[in-house]
Amino acid sequence: MDPYVLKTLNAERLARRAAAVVTDLGDGRDRIVREGDLVAGELGDAIAKSFRTGQSTTIQAEGRSFFINVHLPQPRLIVIGAVHISQALAPMAKIAGFPVEIIDPRTAFATPERFPDLPLAAEWPEDVLRRNPLDSYTALAALTHDPKIDDFPLKAALEAGCFYVGALGSRKTHAKRVERLTELGATEQQIARIDAPIGIDIGASSPAEIAVAVLAQIIQSYRSRGVVAKAGVAA
């Protein structure tokens, strides 16, 4: 691999940004394509598909053969609120391949006994996220029902371009949330990205069922990058 290409790829990976090394198999030349870069034609379509699926591939395009070696950051899930839904969601998300961190300043809820073998921060979200910033390969689920805890990470997730931003609550609760986020400076376009009520609509009622609905929506968002419209469930 060309040393410049390798250096650039390593920098992108360190910054948790997706990149692909595209090799022309005819002459062996490599180039870096970052997610979001404009590449026209069949090659561009194939690169976009690789970014969505995370699968490297060899393709024929424009009369040439190319190998697309895609490198995606590990998607992760940040859960705001050490609640019953979180207790069900966290182990399921880990099985699905999403490392999970639970954040909740309420020390009665955020305990190792309730969340064994999980990164757990009994701190205010703004303090945790200052040390460990959100990014576009992070999903954030706000589950506390408490504006003092949920609002800051929701706005931070919108500003960071998280691939999924979901918030627990009814439509009436969300309407008040929209007013608060607007006052905090979030735009209408940003707020529209919040999935609220949270989770795909499967008629979920128990914490475990809501967790299933939320995880399904996270996976859907990750694989579609927001292309597919999603419905939610209230809680």
Q: What can you see in these coordinates?
A:
This protein is of the alpha/beta class and 235 residues long. It has two domains: 3-71, no CATH class; 76-224, Rossmann fold, CATH 3.40.50.720. It has eight helices and nine strands. It has a five-stranded parallel beta sheet with strand order 7-6-5-8-9, with helices on both faces. It has a four-stranded antiparallel beta sheet with strand order 2-1-4-3, with helices on both faces. This is XdhC family protein.
Summarize this entry quickly:
The protein has 235 residues and is α/β, with parallel strands linked by helices. It is built from eight helices and nine strands. It has two domains: 69 residues, no CATH class; 149 residues, NAD(P)-binding Rossmann-like Domain (Rossmann fold, 3-Layer(aba) Sandwich), CATH 3.40.50.
Assign the CATH topology of the largest domain. Rossmann fold
Examine the secondary-structure arrangement and name the CATH architecture of the largest domain. 3-Layer(aba) Sandwich
Which strand order do you get reading across the main beta sheet? 7-6-5-8-9
Continuous helix count: 8
The biggest beta sheet reads:
5 strands, parallel
- Looking at this structure, what is the CATH superfamily of the largest domain? NAD(P)-binding Rossmann-like Domain
Order of helices and strands: HEEHEEEHEEHEHEHHH
Can you tell me the overall shape? elongated
Report the structural category: alpha/beta
- Could you tell me the strand content as a percent range? 15-25%
Domain XdhC Rossmann: 77-218
Protein name: XdhC family protein
Pfam families: XdhC_C (PF13478)
InterPro entries: MoCofactor_Util/Proc, XdhC_Rossmann_dom
